[in-house]
Every structure is written in structure tokens, then in C-alpha cells.
Amino acid sequence: MERELERTREREPQEDRYDNLLQWMQVQTRRRVEGKVLLRAEEIPWQQNRQGYQRSYSDPMIWAQQAVPGWVIARTDQRAIRRGKHTHRGGGRLLYALEGRGRTVNNEVNLDWEVGDLEILPVTRTENVHEHFNLDPGKPCGLLVLMFWPFMEATANETRQMTDSPDWKGERKAELYRPDDFVPESAHLTGYDINIDGRPADLLDDLYLRRNQWRDQMSKARWIVKAQHQPLETNRMGVYRWFVHPSFTDVAARQILFWTHDIPHGSRSGAQKTQGGRIHFVVDGQGYSVVDGKRYDWEKEDMIMLPIKAGGVVVQHFNADSQKPAKLAVAEPNWYDILGMDMACGLEQLEDCPEYGATRRGA
User: Fold this and answer.
1) Residue 120: Cβ-neighbour burial (10 angstroms; 0-12, 13-18, 19+)
2) Do 317 and 269 form a contact (C-beta atoms < 8 A)?
3) Which parts of 149-226 are beta strand (E)?
4) Nearest to residue 283, comparing CAs of 120, 75, 111, 136?
């Protein structure tokens, strides 16, 4: 008996996941390269929400338009005595005081700040319940709020509302408010004590030793970094005041580096090549930045975002005012402790600021 041969249907083309991945990466590259570098304050509306009155510079809804996705950045304006009260599971936010005097009550701890100070909400195993108060009601009181979502995602971060701003007149949406089980029971689960004297017996114990050291540091860490306690330094890039630096072990969080950059009247910064991802908020003054040869003019309350590009970006800042200084508040993710100082492009100084040479000649 002849054997019957069955014809097999020609295979239907299958989705090529690898090709899709390559194409997706190209889209992300184009977004970073073509995204907005300069965010003009005049083009960003103020909005009243249940937390307070604020202007949102960056959030997930507009990441696709920006040169640096991942940042959540808002600028608050508070004339009333208090803002709304909410809670963050995870934590890890920075709040830079732009004007006024205020108090944050975080987990029942009073944190008083004034213009120029930096508040750090630590990463906790439970939550940060907090509310912001204006200590001079009726006078301006504003904060620059900074979060970098990839780090927040890693800590299962979520925010829920507790009470609304006195000025909020909108509806109450129950699903936005803190449920009783917001912090799961597992967050309170602890193991037996592991005390390690001397050298760890194995590499797992080395991690537990690091954990113990970290907990000890955090128990004494600064939640408010006072500007008056942070010295100015004149370095190759300019006049800096560091608030969070990789070498600082006494601050409540180090996942975002933060400093201010003063540019004297008519002067300029140094020129530097960096991987990008850095943001600059114009606290005061007017000028322009040259990013990879392109000029971006800025004024008070604008923001400059350095794109993350293959080969890095070259940046230099100029104060266009011959009479008044300019001040930038600068932040970038602390990738250096994870990916190395060179990242994928090299951290290179190309030109020094004028003040650096003058400082060295006078030394």
C-alpha cells in the first residue's frame, strides 16, 4: 500500500520579536535626540489640583516629547497655610526651596526649610506621610519637586491622597485616596538579627553587613540640607554648591545628585562632555546654553534638559546679563555609582570657566 503523504501547509509568517525590539530601540533613540531640550515656563500652565497649585515640567504624559524621559518635575506655588496631604510608598523625592519659608511634616517629624535649602524624603520600607505648610501665609512659598521614575519604579512607589488642598473644589475620587492596606503586612516583616563583627564569613554576609551600615547611616542622615551649611566651591565648571554628591554619606538619599550653579554676570561655565540626562532649572537670571553646538536661550523658571545621546553631549552655559548673576539648580540621576564615571561616552572637561583659572592663580 502506497504511503500517503500529507502536505504541510506553508508556515504563516510569525512576528519577529527580535526585529521589533531593534525597531523599538531606534524609536527611543530618535525620541531622545529629537525631544525638547528647552522647556519654557511661559508655555507651561499653572494648574490647581487636589494637592495644590503647581506647574508640571515633566511627567509620563509628555515624556515622548522630551529629550530626557523619566523625570517627574513640578514647581509649586503656595500662598495658603497648607497644601494637600498625601503619602508616598517608597519615597526618594527631592524638594528644593525656591522661595519663602516652610515646614514639611513627614511621618510626624517637623522639617523646617527656607529659600535655598534642599529637603530629601528618604526611601523607607513603609511610607512617607507628609504635608507642606507655609510659615508666612500670604507670601510666596514654592518648591521644585524632583523624582526620577526608574528609581521610583524599583521601590514599588505609589502616591495616594489623604486630604485635599483648601483651594481644591473638584470632586473626590475614592480610588485616589489611601486605602487601609496601602502598606502591606509584608513591609513590616523582619528576620533575626545578623550582627557581623570584623570581616564577613561569606559574600552574602557582606551584603548584610552593608545593610547594617546603611541602616546606621540612615538613622543619622540629614533630611534637610541647609544651603548655609554647604560651602561654595569654584571648580572647572563654575561656582557650585553641592547638596547631594556621590561622596556624601550623611544625606537621606543619594539616587539623585543635586547642586546649584552660580554664573557671575557676563561670565560662562566651563565646557563639559557628559552622557546627558541632566536637568537645569533656572532659579534666577537670563542667558543661554550651547548643547552640541546649538544655542538655547533661557530666563528665570525655564528648564534645560541635556539629551542622552550616543557619544555624549557637550554643554556650556553663558550668563547674558552684564549686571546680574544667574543661578541654575541642577540634578541628574546618580548613575555613577552603578554604571561608572565614564558611563558610555566619557566624562571629559573641554574648557574651564574663567573663575577657575583666577582662583588657581590667586591660590
Assistant:
1) buried
2) yes
3) 158-163, 224-225
4) 75
CA distance 85 to 104: 10
| Cβ(167)–Cβ(80) below 8 Å | yes
- CA separation for the pair 47, 56 (Å, rounded): 8
DSSP 76-121: EE--SSEEEEEEEES--EEEEEEESEEEEEETTEEEEEETT-EEEE
The distance in angstroms from the start CA to the end CA of the chain is: 103
237 and 329 co-located in one domain: yes
> Which residues are CB-contacts of 205 (< 8 A; sequence separation ≥ 6)?
194, 196
Model pLDDT for residues 291-328, shown as the tens digit of each residue: 999 999 999 999 999 999 999 999 999 999 999 999 99
State the residue range of the domain holding 80.
Answer: 38-168
Say what the pLDDT of residue 360 is: 67
**pLDDT tens per residue, range 330-356:** 999 999 999 999 999 999 999 999 999
* Residue 23 domain flag: no
* Residue 117 Cα to chain centre, angstroms: 16
CA 27 to chain centre: 24
**Tally of domains within the chain:** 2
* Average pLDDT value for the chain: 93
Cell numbers that stand for 53 in this block: 497649585
Are 146 and 333 contacting, i.e. CB atoms less than 8 angstroms apart?
no
pTM across the whole model: 0.93
- Say if residue 159 is in the same domain as residue 64: yes
Q: Comparing C-alpha atoms, which of 38, 27, 25 is closest to residue 64? A: 27
Q: What residues have CB less than 8 Å from 62, skipping those under 6 apart? A: none
Taking each continuous run of H as one helix and of E as one strand, the counts in the chain are 5, 24
Task: Give 61-109 pLDDT, tens digit per residue.
Answer: 999 999 999 999 999 998 889 999 999 998 889 999 999 999 999 999 9
